């Protein structure tokens, strides 16, 4: 695997945290769980994963900034660089024993994502990318977005809001508009993997309206480096700051965006 020192550090951190997560996943019924909100759980495993990742990344690059799902944001001595980490994306899947969850790590430099890792330990799939170097799966397989050009043949993915989230009506409207025009929509519960699957050509596109930056930062770079397009759900928005993202291959990006923007 050829990558920068930063990328190698990210991969090492993801693999180390994954060992802890996999161990607890095998004993999922015994996990200590606290409730953060309707359908949104924080587990002991989640917190331990973030601790391991932070220790590895900040140990290797102590001057960088940090933002993580569990520990929040810390400004670094170097204001131009920041780690963006989701230590366990797909927590609800994890708690229910469903093997579809991931670790997501991105490196931001001067406001732009320049390195990305999305690791799915249950399937041992390491998706990674660096700006200008393409997107890759595991050691040597380059990945590309799909070549489909017709909406009626395309499969898309999204996240359906849980609990009383405010974007539920808009998402239901999205589904009502899109589903008659495509071959199917999937909701698998891990945004980072949805974006990685777009990058790998498994999905033809993806959108979601209510994400955090750690959910999508790494996946956005994967899609770009795999030849895809990304943009905000609402024209003119900062998609990472607003957490509302559309991603697709180039032929389908415009028709998908047109449907979602109404």
CATH topology of the largest domain, by name, is Fructose-1,6-Bisphosphatase, Chain A, domain 1
Query: Can you list the strand order of the major beta sheet?
Result: 4-3-5-6-7-8-9-10
Tally of distinct domains: 2
User: What's the rounded overall pLDDT mean?
Assistant: 92
Poorly predicted runs of 5 or more residues: 37-41
Would you identify the CATH architecture of the largest domain? 2-Layer Sandwich
Percentage of residues in DSSP E strands: 25-35%
Separate helix tally? 8
How many strand units? 15
Radius of gyration, Cα only, in angstroms? 17 Å
What percent of the residues sit in helical stretches (DSSP H or I)? Answer: 25-40%
Which sheet architecture does the biggest sheet show?
8 strands, mixed
Elements, N to C (H/E): HEEHEEEHEEEEEEHEHEHEHEH
The CATH superfamily of the largest domain turns out to be: Fructose-1,6-Bisphosphatase, subunit A, domain 1
Please give the CATH class of the largest domain: Alpha Beta
The N- to C-terminal Cα distance equals 43 Å
Report what the structure shows.
There is one protein chain. Strand 9 and strand 10 (141-143) form a beta hairpin. With 262 residues, the protein is of the alpha+beta class. Helix content is 35%, strand content 28%. Helix 1 (5-25) packs antiparallel against helix 2 and helix 5 packs parallel to helix 6.
Topology of helices and strands:
Blueprint (H helix, E strand, L loop, with lengths): L4 H21 L7 E5 L2 E4 H17 L4 E4 L3 E3 L6 E9 L1 H5 L6 E8 L2 E9 L4 E6 L4 E3 L3 E3 L11 E4 L9 H11 L5 E3 L4 H9 L5 E4 L4 H13 L3 E4 L6 H4 L2 E4 L1 H11 L2
Parallel strand pairs: 3-5, 11-12, 11-13
Antiparallel strand pairs: 1-2, 3-4, 5-6, 6-7, 7-8, 8-9, 9-10, 13-15, 14-15
Helix pairs in contact: 1-2, 5-6
